[in-house]
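Why should sequence recovery work at all? Because a backbone constrains its sequence more than one might expect. Tight turns favour small or flexible residues, buried strands favour hydrophobic ones, and helices have their own preferences. The token representation captures these environments compactly. In the example below, the structure is given first.
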């Protein structure tokens, strides 16, 4: 009797253990860290290249007494290219707004030539005057603020503005011929011109660190004034007022230190 009871008890225990082994096993779920959030904030460096064209291409010429010189001066459409480098810093406010500062310096080869041809009779004497004016831009730079909105997390639309400067070289050479005499006048000036710049653009993030951009800038610089003097005796013959404004469309590639 006792042996039968012990055997039955052992059989029940073995059945319970087998049933428990077949039950599904539940463990605590594995913990995962939050995915990093992409951000435009942080410093960056880059390169840019673009096309430039002069906004005002006709210089103004005045005679020795300060009166506008008679005769039309031709417009000369001018275009060039530029290539340079960029440094900047962005701050991101919330999910949609980005503000920052950017500086760039570019080599440029914007050249312009304008010509004057005039036939006049001052005091009844026939005078034939011709002249050529040259304007050359070797480099320019800007220091700007940027304020933008994110059309999508990877696409930044922005407005930009600040100060600008450029190295401008000017020269003029003219001849004046009458029945009794002829003269040659020359003048030149090289200087760094300062002004402002305004523009807009867009920048697209290719990855966490690389982005491409396209932008338009208008650069308004102070005018250049210089004298043209008689080559023979140095007497002032005329004065020239030339403009230095230009526009540029350029593309760039930026490397941002950060991205998350």
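From this structural description, the recovered sequence reads:
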């Amino acid at each position: 009797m006792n042996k039968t009871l012990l055997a039955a008890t052992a059989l029940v225990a073995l059945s319970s253990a087998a049933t428990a082994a077949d039950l599904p096993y539940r463990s605590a779920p594995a913990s995962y860290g939050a995915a990093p959030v992409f951000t435009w904030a942080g410093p960056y460096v880059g390169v840019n290249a673009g096309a430039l064209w002069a906004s005002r291409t006709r210089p103004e010429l005045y005679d020795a007494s300060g009166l506008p010189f008679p005769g039309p001066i031709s417009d000369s459409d001018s275009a060039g290219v530029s290539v340079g480098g960029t440094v900047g810093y962005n701050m991101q406010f919330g999910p949609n707004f980005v503000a920052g500062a950017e500086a760039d310096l570019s080599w440029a080869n914007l050249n312009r030539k304008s010509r004057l041809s005039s036939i006049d009779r001052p005091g009844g004497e026939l005078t034939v005057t011709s002249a050529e004016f040259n304007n050359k831009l070797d480099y320019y730079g800007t220091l700007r603020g940027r304020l933008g909105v994110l059309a999508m997390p990877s696409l930044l639309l922005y407005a930009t503005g600040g100060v600008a400067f450029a190295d401008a070289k000017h020269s003029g050479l003219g001849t004046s011929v009458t029945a009794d005499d002829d003269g040659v006048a020359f003048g030149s000036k090289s200087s760094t011109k300062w002004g402002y710049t305004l523009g807009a653009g867009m920048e697209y993030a290719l990855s966490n660190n690389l982005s491409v951009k396209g932008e338009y800038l208008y650069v308004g610089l102070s005018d250049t004034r210089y004298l043209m003097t008689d080559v023979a005796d140095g007497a002032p013959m005329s004065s020239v007022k030339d403009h230095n404004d230009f526009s540029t469309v350029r593309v760039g590639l930026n490397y941002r230190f950060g991205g998350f």
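A few observations help interpret the result. The chain has a mean pLDDT of 84.
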